[in-house]
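thread: overnight batch results

M.L. [08:02]
morning all. the overnight job finished for the chain we discussed friday. pasting input first so we're all looking at the same thing
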Amino acid sequence: MTPTPPLFLLLLGLVGAHATMDLRTAAAMAAGLCNTRPTDLVFIVDSSRSVRPSEFEQVKVFLAKVIEGLDVGPNATRVGVVNYASRVKNEVSLKTHRTKAGLVKAVTKIEPLSTGTMTGLSIQFALNVAFSESEGARVKSPDISKVAIIVTDGRPQDNVKDVAQRARDAGIEIFAIGVGRVDMNTLKQMASDPLDDHVDYVESYSVIEKLTKKFQEAFCVSDLCATGDHDCAQVCISSPGSYKCACKDGFTLMDDGRSCSACSNAATDVVFLIDGSKSVRPENFELVKKWINQIVDKLDVSDNKAHVGLVQYSSSVKQEFPLGRYNNKKDLKDAVKKMAYMERGTMTGQALRYLSDNSFTPSQGARPGVAKVGIVFTDGRSQDYIGDAAKKAKENGFKMYAVGVGNAVEDELKEIASEPTGEHYFYTADFKTMTQIAKKLQINICQEEDPCECDSLVKFQKKVEDALQALTKKHILYKRWNEISLESVSKRIAALENKIV
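M.L. [08:03]
and the structure it wrote out:
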């Protein structure tokens, strides 16, 4: 059996956890912006014979890292640990340790039981004993969360479905973590709804610590405005564990509740031109589709307002759907999600020519007299010349945004983007940070004034100015005449006075 690692080695692992955890969460914790809500938390850990001693050590490190992110205390989060195989052992009671240091030390001392896998028995034990008031659990209250995190790597030798249902009915939220050759159906029978949030799988115990961040964030109630973990375009107003968006003076909050516009009533034709080359990679292409839908969320999609088209390119160009085919956000976003990855070259120049020659034509759904916006995404250098096509798009009056990720060439992005380029091109090194670009990219198209109305206004203003000038001249003449008349009368009076004398 592998000996239990010294405490200082475990703590060294915790330092590593802080280095790899999500930076926003780490910053929030460091700044005191993240507190864990009061919780009775019980880990239920499988130490059956299929879990090798070295793997069980990795489970203990995972537990310690999660504990490190908690606000541990009698009135905050209390932690218990149940160890199970063919039998169940209450290793750490909810009432035993009130500090992180005490909990971590207790976790390092847990030894594997190395027999069968009675997962149902362990859940029943947690329900009857670990979550009992005698073991330190608090009286059921809306203010106190009851959470069980089950870690297992095998198929249980007893029934888990019914006992897990009883635990959930008692108000216990269950997270199920499966490792290696675990039975996924069993995990789903144990976990709370929604399953996507409560079931996790890792290939081996060596990577279980990658789930640390998820559980630190799950228990974290942070000031989302202060940590920047929000998608408000202008103003974020914080509330406990939540936020709402607002706008600066002169701007209106859009229907999506996040973006702001000074011109919310403008009709716009928007076409996305998306790089589907092989350098993007399938997992990143999924992030690109989410990014597109983030921007769609900010648009007022309807028959009379924003219309959206989508074009994908690689070595060739493919129109996914034209402008006006989808006139509500749900259908539009569903169509974006269905876009299949092309996975070939990067012919950005060819794609820009297609945009000018096809995407914004009436035959492809473009509306005459409506503002045209092109949003070009790429992750690398174009394999053909883009200069003429980029120039033509802007000469046609299209407002062009250029977005680059990874190996995208910033000079090419600037060449594509409309003036001022600082407002129309964006770059990030990592696909995972594209969400920040979606927040910054504001499509503000204001409806142009009716030139007839404008001419009428100018004419009216000219008439008013002419009338004022005429009145001014009359006033000056009248004043001058009065001055002359008064001077003449004064001279005559003086002459008469001299004769009298």
